[in-house]
């Protein structure tokens, strides 16, 4: 195993801002996955020099990544 | 043509019910927001390999959230890998097994494998939660006089227990106790009276706690519940990762494991699963407190 992507989301909530997705890289992976492949994820890896866990925030949101406009799918506009 | 959602006209305007599956609500709601969600996922599903569609759709349409989430996760991963520009093989073989995806670059060079796993409590476990909730509700309605109960469900049976005889036995046990006597004795022995009920696989430990105030106030019999919340999400996460990490042997390429969950899992659960349980060390001579990790993590 090279890295673990983890989140708590579903078909309805995947684009909401309060559902972060993280990628944690295995420090001793036989085959290393390059970092920075998934810009909507917070990345975590162990610095090879210090051994400390480094956290890099996501570059974009899942919604932006998929080209969805802010607030999509607009639950607030539903007639209730 | 295979679809994820039914093509019926929808008129439902009510929200999701607590005991309703994720798919049921997605498929039946007439809210415009849900229609956007359906359209979004149908459009990605259209791009899924034709020969894989029916199996994925069958799991996606499950009324059990676990297989539904598992199928959704595969579609989500398919979507973000496609959007990232990778070429994909779905269900690439490895030995006698198949992973979920193999991502290639534009030159058809294989880059990395992806395996998806939904974790969390299965329906069978959720059913047991519901049975226990019914049992506790019955116990809570039992008249307990000048006692409150501390309860610990130590084992769960496979089926709903008959609560009427349990309540009768519980009432009889409590009637055999004298609250003033118990109060006087506990100061000496530091122990409260206990009673264990066992039936059909269920085992419940009751402790009678005398109340100083007036007789039964009708607020419910249960004053304290032990182990009502077991913080074991990290154990399920770790088991899921462990199972996948070593399942395929040497792949020759990186393996990305993608995990989603039907239950809330905190960041601490994830890091405990990955790095190991937290150990506390106290130096009694200096008062210094340090922490380390037990070597039972996945990493």
Summarize the structure.
The complex is a heterodimer of chains A (about 80) and B (about 300). Chain A is mostly beta strands. Chain A contains one helix and four strands; from the N terminus they run ββββα.
Secondary structure layout plus pairing:
The complex is a heterodimer of chains A (80) and B (299).
Chain A: E1 3-6, E2 22-25, E3 42-46, E4 53-56, H1 62-65
Parallel strand pairs in A: 2-3
Antiparallel strand pairs in A: 1-2, 3-4
Chain B: H1 22-28, H2 32-46, H3 50-60, H4 65-83, E1 87-90, E2 93-94, E3 97-98, E4 101-104, E5 110-119, H5 123-140, E6 147-155, H6 163-175, H7 179-189, E7 194-199, E8 202-210, E9 222-226, H8 233-245, E10 255-261, H9 267-275, E11 278-282, E12 289-293
Parallel strand pairs in B: 5-10, 6-9
Antiparallel strand pairs in B: 1-4, 2-3, 4-5, 6-8, 7-8, 11-12
Helix pairs in contact in B: 3-4, 8-9
Q: How would you portray this structure in words?
A:
The complex is a heterodimer of chains A (80) and B (299). Chain A is mainly β and 80 residues long. Helices cover 5% and strands 21% of the residues of chain A. Chain A contains 1 helix and 4 strands; from the N terminus they run ββββα. Chain A has a 4-stranded mixed beta sheet with strand order 1-2-3-4, with no helix packed on it. Chain B has 299 residues and is an alpha+beta fold. Chain B is 39% helix and 23% strand. In chain B, the strands form 4 sheets. Chain B has a 4-stranded mixed beta sheet with strand order 1-4-5-10. A 4-stranded mixed beta sheet of chain B has the order 7-8-6-9. In chain B, helix 3 (50-60) packs across helix 4 and helix 8 packs across helix 9 (267-275).
